[in-house]
Write a structure and sequence with these properties.
Strand content: 15-25%
Oligomer: single chain
Low-confidence stretches: none
CATH topology of the largest domain: Rossmann fold
CATH architecture of the largest domain: 3-Layer(aba) Sandwich
Radius of gyration: 22 Å
CATH class of the largest domain: Alpha Beta
Number of strands: 10
Strand order of the largest sheet: 6-7-8-3-9-10
Shape: globular
Helix content: 40-55%
Length: about 300
């Protein structure tokens, strides 16, 4: 399913002295099956933007179209459209409330009016997606689990509703490295195997380098740039102007280039850097064997 945003503006506290423009004339399209990363400094409008994608917020002006239907149109079935778009807030584990993991994950499908058999199938499917063994965890209290496991339970509760689009706002915030890696691996697999359209907000450029197929850079409520991770992360000056950094590999490459290493300007993945360093090393050895002077590498 596709999502199109046309001239979206959102203002908080309109008509008061506290009036704040959070989004201004934003236009964008989210294509079916892509993994879209939204990045920007705190207050750039990222969270406000994604809350419009499932109708949680209504635009001050502009429109959001879901497969051609205006999400806020007068006669649209907003509830049916919203069920197709799952939104996972920051720290979703704070919203867990049932006595067992299975019951918490089943809450959404139960409200969809599904049969007991369908609900059980949805719970098992969602737990498998987030790498939680059904036999081991289904009857446990979610409050007995680790922080990372609780977050996966919360995400499973959204996945169990079988959304066409999954939106996550800072899904790895506050997790230790192991918990963070499990969440990222789960999202990576969900996108690759289930072809789920994923929209993720994150401050981590390394997470975006690992997962995103396209990036949107936001600043002061507007879209500053959009492109592939390779296109965006090669623009280090632009990223700095937006109050952002680049992935660690891209930063390391800048340092190495300054020291005379002949590296392309758009490297941002560890495996790519490794490949180029090995190639430079092989080239140096060939030059040494031929009796020629080599470069620093």
């Amino acid at each position: 399913m596709s999502i199109e945003i046309r001239n979206l503006t959102h203002t908080y506290s309109e008509g008061t002295a506290m009036r704040t423009v959070a989004l201004e004339d934003v236009c964008m399209t989210i294509e079916d099956g892509e993994f879209l990363g939204i990045i920007g400094h705190t207050g750039s409008g990222k969270s406000t933007l994604v809350q419009h994608l499932n109708g949680l917020l209504k635009p001050t002006s502009g429109q959001v179209f879901i497969d051609g239907e205006d999400l806020n149109g007068e006669h649209v079935n907003r509830r049916a459209l919203r069920q197709r778009i799952g939104l996972v807030f920051q720290y979703p584990e704070y919203q867990l409330f049932e006595e067992t993991v299975a019951k918490d994950i089943a809450f959404g499908p139960k409200n969809q009016g599904l049969s007991k058999e369908d609900i059980d199938e949805r719970v098992r499917y969602a737990m498998d997606c987030v790498h939680l063994d059904y036999q081991k965890y289904s009857e446990r209290s979610p409050f007995e689990l680790s922080g990372g496991q609780m977050r996966r339970v919360a995400i499973a509760g959204v996945i169990a509703m079988r959304p066409s689009v999954l939106i996550l706002d800072e899904p790895t915030a506050g997790l230790d490295p192991r918990g963070r890696d499990r969440i990222l691996s789960m999202l990576e697999q969900l996108h690759a195997e289930q072809h789920t359209t994923i929209v993720m907000v994150s401050h981590s450029m390394d997470d975006m380098a690992r997962l995103a197929t396209r990036l949107i850079v936001m600043a002061e409520g507007k879209i500053l740039a959009t492109g592939t991770p390779r296109e965006i992360f090669s623009q280090e000056k632009m990223m700095m102007s937006a109050g952002l950094g680049v992935p660690q590999v891209a930063s390391l490459c800048s340092t190495l280039r300054a020291k005379g290493f002949d590296l392309p300007p758009d490297l941002y993945r560890p495996e790519e850097l490794k490949e180029h360093i090995l190639q430079l090393w092989k080239n140096k050895n060939k030059m040494n064997l031929s009796g020629k002077e080599g470069s620093p590498c």
